[in-house]
Amino acid sequence: MNQSVLEQLESVILKGEIVTEEQKVLKLSKDYYWYSPVLKDDLEEKKADFIVIPDNTAEVSEILQIARNEQIPVTIRGAGTGNYGQAIPMTGGVVVDLSRLNKVIDMQLGYVKVEAGMRLRDLEKQANVQEQELTIYPSTFAKATVGGFVSGGSGGVGSVTWGNLWDGNVLAATVMTMTDPIEIFTVQGNELKDYIHSYGTTGVLVDVTLPLKPKHNWRQLVLKFDGLSNTLKFTREIAESSNWKKRLVTVLEAPIPSFFKPLKKVITEEGDYAFLEVADEQYEAILSLAKQFKGKEVYTVIPDNYRKGIGISDFTWNHTTLWALKADTDWTYLQNFFELERFEEQIELIKAKFGDEVLIHIEWLRDRGRLIPAGLPLVKYSSKERLYEVIDFFNRNGASVNDPHTYLLGAGGWNLQLESIANKKKINDPYDLLNQGKLPTPEQVSAS
Question: How many domains in the chain?
Answer without folding.
Answer: 3
